[in-house]
Write a structure and sequence with these properties.
Blueprint: H1 4-19, H2 23-40
């Protein structure tokens, strides 16, 4: 798992911001995601065990 949880939290926060009309927060979270990718690396791709969902984003 490593640092993957950081990306999950940031994506959840971005979704919250977009769903609650907080565009500036969403933009800052996008920046934080880019910084995390640079400093931590790309998050691992999670495989979904449900049939017919392999490779789909979570």
């Amino acid at each position: 798992m490593g640092h993957d949880w950081v990306f999950d939290v940031l994506r959840d926060l971005r979704t919250y911001a977009l769903n609650n009309d907080l565009p500036e927060l969403a933009q800052k979270v996008e920046e934080a995601l880019r910084v995390a990718e640079l400093e931590i690396g790309k998050p691992a791709v999670k495989e979904d065990k449900r049939p017919g969902t392999k490779g789909l984003p979570h």
